[in-house]
Amino acid sequence: MNIRWRSKEVLRVLFLLFLGQVVSFNLAITALCSSLLVDLGVDLPLTQSFFTYALLALVYGCVLLYRRQRLLVPWYWYIPLGFVDVQGNYLVIKAFQYSSITSVTILDCWTIPWVMILTWIFIKTRYSLWQFLGAAICVVGLCLVLLSDAGIAGGGGDKPLLGDTLVIIGTLCYAMSNVGEEYCVKKKDLVEVISMLGVFGLLVSICEISVVERKTIEEVKWTAEIISLFAGFALSTFMFYSLVPFVLKMSGATLFNLSILTSDMWAVVIRIFFYHQQVDWLYYLAFGGVALGIIIYSVSSERDPVPTTAIADGGLNIQYEALSQESAASGNEVLAA
User: DSSP letters along 84-126, please?
Assistant: First the structure.
């Protein structure tokens, strides 16, 4: 019995590692599709995200309608959630116009320190000194990327510092989205959160596309290659949004963060073999620093304070009582009517 139990545990861990790498590889694919679209002269970051949100709203929205259940979180909580998520995607995708695929994927890790700051302020999460040390080492590693892209060791892209700045601001938007998702997911109905994120992300994208990208869309010559890259981006991001909640539910944030970190190495592999570009030694040093920092941060975590670019499963604590009471009150009003 003991041997059988250990065998099941080994298989479970291997499955989680595989699933985590699928999520990580999807991140690398989204970066590759965005980079290739830039090479083809396409600058439509909002339109790229539009198809992702459309898929999320269509698939998970249908599941939600089939259930015929009342929203467990008031709908207006999802408006700012969708808004900041769209801005995060826009800024990070836009960064590919100016910086290299390796820089963008590594600098994505800025989400972790931003989340720590926001959860400290708004959710009153407290972190240990080891967690702060891990986050600090991550920041040092990310600074090495900035130094490399500034020209000290050579970086990719036409305006790498502008691209790096856009990524850092974009990760702040991701962090705000993640904290909002942690707040809303207290009922643990992942289908509702994903579908509502898709619906309101879709509405925000439509509004911004009509203002920012309408003329650019008309100028694009829609070849089969461009359409294929849009489809690849939409499918990979859809898979990312869909798989992350299940990875978190089965393994927690520690294994998830370690798995996501490997997307940076996938990006390095893509840059070397697909673009035939040389990767500066500072990138490897930066990757090592970010890896060490996240390992220290994750191992020292007593709980799951850091949500991800998707939906974290957990977060039941006293801070959510107000939302619970508000949901109950709104439900009573509907029944009374």
Answer: HHHHHHHHHHHHTTTS-HHHHHHHGGGHHHHHHHHIIIII---
Cα gap 131→71, rounded to integer Å? 35
* Tokens describing residue 18: 């595989």
Q: What is the pLDDT of residue 321?
A: 34
- Mean pLDDT computed over every residue of the chain: 76
Q: Do the Cβ atoms of 46 and 287 come closer than 8 Å?
A: no
184-215: pLDDT as tens digits: 766 668 888 899 999 999 999 999 999 999 99
Interior angle at CA 219, CA 214 and CA 225, nearest 5: 110
Task: Tell me the whole-structure pTM to 2 decimals.
Answer: 0.74
Calculate the alpha carbon distances from 184 to 59, 241, 327 in Å. 20, 16, 11
Answer positive or negative: Cα dihedral of 269, 270, 271, 274. Answer: positive
d(CA 67, CA 242): 18
**Distance, CA of 247 to CA of 61 (rounded, Å):** 21
CB count in 10 Å sphere of residue 314: 17
Please check whether residue 14 is in contact with residue 225, taking contact to mean a CB–CB distance below 8 angstroms: no
Q: Give the pLDDT confidence score for residue 302 in this predicted structure.
A: 43
Cα dihedral 217, 223, 229, 235 in deg (nearest 10): 80
Rounded Cα gap, residues 327 and 72, in angstroms: 7
Q: What confidence tens digit (pLDDT) does each residue in 41-54 have?
A: 999 999 999 999 99
Q: How far, in whole angstroms, is CA 142 from its chain's centroid?
A: 17
Distance CA 150, CA 134 (A): 25
Q: Which residue has the higher pLDDT, 238 or 102?
A: 238
Count of Cβ atoms closer than 10 Å to residue 335 Cβ: 7
Task: Give the number of other CB atoms < 10 A from CB of residue 241.
Answer: 23
Cα(81)–Cα(196) distance, integer angstroms: 9
